[in-house]
Write a structure and sequence with these properties.
The protein is mainly alpha-helical and 66 residues long. The chain is built from 2 helices and no strands.
Length: 66
């Protein structure tokens, strides 16, 4: 469980850093700042969840094989 928490923290930092390079302002209409922030938040949460679970599955698979 401690490893999963560490992965969540690490992946949060990496995903926030990497998604910051994407210009999402062009996707949204003008003066829709709150909606853009909510969209950004949900995209980050989805990516963090998916990446962490993928990594945990990979680690568990190699532990079973090895």
């Amino acid at each position: 469980m401690k490893g999963k928490i560490f992965l969540y923290i690490l992946n949060t930092i990496l995903i926030l850093w990497s998604i910051d390079s994407v210009n999402i302002n062009q996707i949204f209409k003008k003066n829709r700042i709150t909606q853009a922030k909510v969209f950004y938040f949900f995209i980050c949460m989805i990516l963090i969840y998916l990446l962490t679970n993928f990594e945990m599955d990979i680690f568990e698979t190699f532990k079973i094989i090895g």
